Amino acid sequence: MEYDILVIGAGILGLSCAYHLKKNNPNKEILVIDRFRAVAQGNTARSNALFRNTFTSPDNQILSDTSIDFYIDMQKSAVDLGIRKTGYLWLQSERELSLNERHVQKMEDEGIELRKYDRGELERMLPLMRTKLTSEESRLMQLEDVVGGVFGVKCGRIDPDKLSRFYAGEFVRIGGKIVLDTNVKKLIVEPNQPLGIDGEPFVWQESRVTGVVVEGQMQGEIRAGTIVIAAGVWNNELLDPIGIDGHVKGKKRQLFTISAGSSPDLRSLIHNKSFNAIGVLPFVILPKSGCYVKALEENNEFWVACEDDINRPFINVPERDLETYKAEPSYFEQNVYRILKEYFPPFENSKPNQMWAGLYSYNTLDMIPFVFVESGMIIAGGGSGSGIMKGDAMGRIVDAVYRLGENGEATLYGGKKYPIHKLGFESRQVEREEWII
Amino acid sequence: MEYDILVIGAGILGLSCAYHLKKNNPNKEILVIDRFRAVAQGNTARSNALFRNTFTSPDNQILSDTSIDFYIDMQKSAVDLGIRKTGYLWLQSERELSLNERHVQKMEDEGIELRKYDRGELERMLPLMRTKLTSEESRLMQLEDVVGGVFGVKCGRIDPDKLSRFYAGEFVRIGGKIVLDTNVKKLIVEPNQPLGIDGEPFVWQESRVTGVVVEGQMQGEIRAGTIVIAAGVWNNELLDPIGIDGHVKGKKRQLFTISAGSSPDLRSLIHNKSFNAIGVLPFVILPKSGCYVKALEENNEFWVACEDDINRPFINVPERDLETYKAEPSYFEQNVYRILKEYFPPFENSKPNQMWAGLYSYNTLDMIPFVFVESGMIIAGGGSGSGIMKGDAMGRIVDAVYRLGENGEATLYGGKKYPIHKLGFESRQVEREEWII
Question: Candidates 3.90.1150.10, 3.30.1490.20, 3.30.9.10, 3.20.20.70; correct CATH number of B89-153+250-361?
């Protein structure tokens, strides 16, 4: 079993890498393996699957903006990716408005399409929202009144399953191979010039990763000229044992769905005509605490969650079974719900009818992904909660690294050039992202 | 049990922090705790305990150079720290000489005192060294001939136990308190404004670390206004559970001692008069593979080791008992010994008479330490194998963070100013270190 390129991980990142690699290296034999029984069954499937081009970091901007363009054009020309251009609405308190002023200015200067609303406008556009909080509870919680909003236009949601199946289908159509239900037990490190001595490689030998040992659908050893590590939060499971730092840490995130049922108020919250052409509530981020609401008009439901900061563990090497990471009803009740109902009274007495957890793959350093070459591997990861929306650009960059090396330039969708080394770490050159939910 | 400052970790870093904090904040109650039964019994005790000011990064330069000055002056004025100014001798192959030329030039431009030797000079100064390798084994191993050497003058070794006891003694003398045999079970995260509700802190509350739960000599909860996290490789054990990234990974390193016994050649290797005023072999780094030799004339012995790169695991959360990490006789035989005897034939047939392992605390990103403020804590670490030689500067920086915040400037020994934010990560500003063994 020998391939030119082996991609580990059939989530959105691995599939985008595989597709762009095969497209630009049609004569190379490329294999994608994944431990799940279908593509994108790990954290891609558990994602909130939103997209936005509203980032302060020019790197995040170009990675997301070009990926979004590609997704939108694909949906126009060929295939339904479940894209709904709802926009993102950041509701801002007085404090946040002033804290974020320079970030918003920076994004506007970079040409990102933003709209700004004051409290009066928001009250007209979102009549079911409470901008002035008066309850005893909101005072105790120190929640903050809404005084304005920032609206990102080129933002919305996408169907991660459709997107993954699109990449997988195209990859296979042009000759790529995907094998599922195949788990990597370990990476094989070998000397570049083996001597056949027991115990190789020794420290005086130049060594690199030449393959993997697998179990499951495929068994034994798979060798490859280049191995693309695109296993998301499981990158550490592969890389820690050979002493390579993947620069990611996992953290649990939870999502809760709330049905609008027959509630006229909740239904009217979903079908809001003030913000976008499709007449759907934008993705709304509430002040403080990163609590947010996504409307899915096709299901008559909302997805709600929070982005917590301190006090929940980092996971260095996650369990393989994501069911280990359970959503917690108390997390909804004590955190999400308490905030939500203060700003949106129609959610009063709501209970989640579904909930699940997934793991973010964090690059905690600058919240911008990594792509670098190391010992026969191209290592990619660190989506930090925005991996899907940058997936296409990341795939193109990994392909460019393969063809041109780390000093090359990737051509992103639409023809924009991106110097690869910026996402590496030996000569990393990125601005820390400031516009985080 | 309430303190102004609690320092977790009584290794060199924690003790230097504690001393400088107490010295500059004499009215603050400061407690140092450590899980071992004496100070500096973790990786400080297992270190090779060398010092050098030869770094390409200006940050590493100033951190080490000022610390070395302090250690040397203390030894001159007051207390034996076991400093032996042997110098460092990097032996260079043709390939390395050309690869490293710009690094050496950079260090010279920065005013670091270096001497350069050619092959002829080295052969005269180190007559027991082989510069041209001719054996079949060295050819198979692709070892490289020595064509020159770079000698760092302000370099040598120090006794980590004496240094730690010096800081501990001074700290206690001026009123600080150290409690040993006390293990931190967890950090306590609490809301800044507690409501007394079960399950606090919630995500809508501002929270911070207010104390620790301990077991052992001290038991129960210790509260502190500021908690200094200086537990080296165990920083992740403290920080992972609350979702803070300490930016370190552990990696096992091994040391082997070889007695010179009555071998005239080995004895004459130790007592070399060509390099330094004390007539002792400098710390010698062999070409390729980072194999090195330290002479301890007082014990009539050598300490030898290698710095391996790929194929040995990173350890995210190390075991508490360092005896878990054993030195491996085969590591000596297959790696260190094979290289050593080619360059230094007197080591032929040597066997280690002692061996031990310790853990490096790596910052894999740029190999320069981190100091940053996070949620009531000052987090310091990432010595990356050069923690002791930067220990004094790190302690002064942590004290300056405490008094002045991350935007302040630390005054290092000798009066040099150092902007604290450079070692943080929100506005980190360091050059990746290139002169690594």
Answer: 3.30.9.10
